[in-house]
Amino acid sequence: MPNFLNMKSFKAGTYITQDGYKSFQPNPINRQWMLDNMEVLEMLGRADRELGRLDMFSGCVPNIDLFISMHVIKEATQSSRIEGTQTNIREALLDKEDLPPESRDDWDEVQNYIRALHTAIADLQTLPFSSRLIRNTHKVLLKGVRGKHKSPGEFRKSQNWIGGSTLKNAVFIPPIHSFVGELMSDLEKFIHNESIYFPELLRIALVHYQFETIHPFLDGNGRVGRLLITLYLVSRGILKNPVLYLSDFFEHNRSQYYDKLTQARENDDISGWFKFFLSGIIETAQNGIKTFDNILRLQKSVETSLQTLGSRAANAQKVMQSLYKKPITNAAKVTEVAGISNASAYKLIASLEKLGILNETTGGKRGRTYEFTNYLKLFSE
Questions:
Q1: Which CATH number applies to 301-380: 1.10.10.10, 1.20.58.110, 3.30.420.40, 3.40.640.10?
Q2: Above 70 in pLDDT, residue 380?
Q3: Distance CA 289, CA 331 (A)
Q4: pTM for this model (two decimals)
């Protein structure tokens, strides 16, 4: 295979015949590439511009970390939903004991995704974007959940497959386990190879495709692969804050997501995958800008409303700060956040209800839960 590749001559790999099945052996990607598709280049320019706008906009949002929390929760629910979990954003915001027993396993997986992302972002302060970082992230993702017996934090040492009940009827069979280390090493070298000119967005698009093709873990490959996109953008300084997540786009276009990955492998159509990926960047960045703009508008409206509360406005401000991070609360949490008595908490909640900021969701007289509905809608629409 030549050292210099263009998109038209891209060869994804070959099938290797095993005992009764064929596994797919991807070709290495750590090579020089030629960008020879004008449609991809045009979309790349648009994606770069939209991502730059999102990064600039997020840098102007006060207390951005408060709002990132909700972006992370949405990413966790959508990425996990692609893998079959049913937890939605509202459920993810609840405490585990507030959910029916049959929903708690899915809830655990979503919470692990959130922890895995936060851990990985913190790890980037001391670790490069690497196989070690990927394994650490995977270990957190599977800790104590349904995949806990599938070698968390370790590349697989046996054959896995996608779709179907056995290797005989699998939809796709990744490479033999003995090649995983070599292929992941090639992927890592490509990420850090400064002698290769390859635009950053196409580089992470190719990395995501190759990672999903290698499928290096026994479980959790999809979720880790989608996490890598945000981690890469942050690690390279393309985003100052982790504010872009593609899982919502992939979830809403799930069939096309899988089809484009398959067509790249089966038909060597890497350009088709690049265009799909870049369209996701463009749409997600645009939606992110709209969300932040709507947050700022809502925040301004809430600030105006709180001024009518007189002496209770300061405590209301404390409650609002917690609601922007987690927009579901109860009297006990308001008591803790504002540092007031239980009776005062109920009075403050009543005032926030009257202003249309909080809405009671349980309909009971005891154990009432309240949500910041207008804010929650910005992430669940």
A1: 1.10.10.10
A2: yes
A3: 33
A4: 0.93
